[in-house]
């Protein structure tokens, strides 16, 4: 029996491990990325490279995308040589974080075509993408979604959150502001502790046994800050984009975003100081620089 063909565009930190899992699950993958190195890494695992998003969409009915920003998503979906120019495509699954407005915009641009847009951002980082333990939140046409469930279940746990493209993006922004705020406040608190003479490991142990426990204390700080590797795998520039989208959504809906706005400042300053591609865990370095104290594990590299 011939394999089901899937398209995949955007093979970065998240896209590459997700595409790799789909190959392992037995799908035939036709791929595109503007980076030749990203393409070749997946070709080596058995995927077939295409010359453009349109070429991918002329070979696969379902195309998954994992792209950095709303503008790139719009370009890849409906720009020149975009997915909507393909001859075979019926479904786009957008795994990127673009915000509800951009997603609704893409859905509007696709009106009048045979292509359904399933908005499906993911949470769980690069580790979750590799292990297939992501949380996937999807919205859009229910019948199209139902067809996709067997594909998406290879990537993690799938939640259907609503009928309109954009609703899943709202859910994702809610998740990410909680994650970023946890990292921001835990960074400030632990730098304070370090300056007061507390040991980093001790602080983590107490937090995780107590009511201060959160995704930064459980995962990001012990695994990527204490060893001073800063390689969680999510760029601070992309994280700042998610926070901006969340604050903008709060403004649009008339919801105060006071704490989120403060978190946005810290992430923006970190992006300016350490660069767009610095890891999001580098936010603690901004606090450390101002405080003149470091949160370092006993086994940290020099
Ligand atoms: P990334 O920058 O590592 O990967 C993006 C990929 O898109 C790159 O390979 C790049 O070459 C490619 N690309 C850029 N412009 C393109 C174009 N015009 N045509 C084709 N390919 C193009 O980003 P990432 O960390 O993999 O994140 C992807 C999306 O997933 C983002 O929206 C991000 O917010 C979201 N996300 C990331 C994480 C994470 O932990 N990294 C977690 C959840 C969600």
Secondary-structure topology with pairs:
Blueprint: E1 5-9, H1 15-24, E2 28-32, H2 36-43, E3 48-49, H3 53-57, E4 62-65, H4 70-78, E5 91-94, H5 100-110, E6 116-119, E7 122-123, H6 125-131, E8 134-139, H7 142-152, E9 156-162, H8 167-195, H9 200-209, H10 215-225, H11 236-253, H12 258-274, H13 283-291
Parallel strand pairs: 1-2, 1-4, 2-3, 4-5, 5-6, 8-9
Antiparallel strand pairs: 7-8
The site of nicotinamide-adenine-dinucleotide (NAD) has 28 residues, from helix 4, strand 7, helix 6 and helix 11.
What would you say this structure looks like, in words?
There is one protein chain. This protein is an alpha/beta fold. It has 2 domains: 5-163, 3-Layer(aba) Sandwich (Rossmann fold); 170-291, N-(1-d-carboxylethyl)-l-norvaline Dehydrogenase, domain 2, CATH 1.10.1040. Helix content is 51%, strand content 13%. The strands form 2 sheets. A 6-stranded parallel β-sheet has the order 3-2-1-4-5-6, with helices on both faces. Strand 4, helix 4 and strand 5 (91-94) form a beta-alpha-beta unit. The protein is globular and about 65 Å long. The termini are far apart. The model has no long low-confidence stretch (mean pLDDT 97). The protein binds nicotinamide-adenine-dinucleotide.
């Amino acid at each position: 029996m011939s394999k089901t063909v899937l398209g995949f565009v955007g093979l970065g930190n998240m896209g590459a491990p997700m595409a790799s899992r789909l190959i392992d699950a037995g799908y035939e993958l036709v791929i595109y990325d503007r980076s030749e190195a990203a393409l070749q890494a997946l070709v080596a695992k058995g995927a077939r490279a295409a010359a453009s998003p349109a070429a991918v969409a002329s070979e696969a009915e379902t195309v998954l995308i994992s792209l950095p920003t709303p503008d790139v998503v719009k370009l890849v979906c409906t720009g020149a040589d975009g997915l909507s120019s393909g001859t075979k495509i019926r479904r786009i699954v957008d795994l990127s974080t673009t915000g509800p407005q951009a997603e609704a915009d893409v859905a509007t641009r696709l009106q009048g075509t045979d292509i359904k847009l399933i908005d499906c951002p993911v949470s769980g980082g690069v580790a979750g993408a590799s292990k297939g333990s992501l949380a996937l939140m999807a919205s859009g046409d229910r019948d199209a979604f139902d067809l996709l469930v067997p594909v998406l279940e290879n990537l993690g746990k799938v939640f259907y959150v609503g009928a309109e493209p954009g609703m899943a993006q709202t859910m994702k922004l809610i998740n990410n502001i909680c994650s970023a705020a946890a990292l921001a406040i835990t960074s400030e608190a632990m730098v304070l502790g370090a300056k007061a003479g507390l040991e980093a490991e001790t602080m983590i142990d107490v937090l995780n046994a107590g009511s201060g426990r959160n995704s930064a204390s459980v995962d990001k700080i012990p695994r990527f800050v204490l060893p001073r590797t800063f390689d969680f795998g999510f760029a601070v520039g992309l994280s700042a984009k998610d926070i901006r989208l969340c604050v903008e959504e709060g403004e649009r809906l008339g919801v105060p975003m006071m704490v989120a706005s403060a978190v946005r400042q810290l992430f923006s300053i970190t992006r300016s100081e350490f660069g767009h591609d610095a890891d999001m865990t580098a936010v603690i370095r901004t606090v450390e620089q101002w405080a003149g104290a470091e949160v370092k594990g006993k086994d940290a590299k020099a």
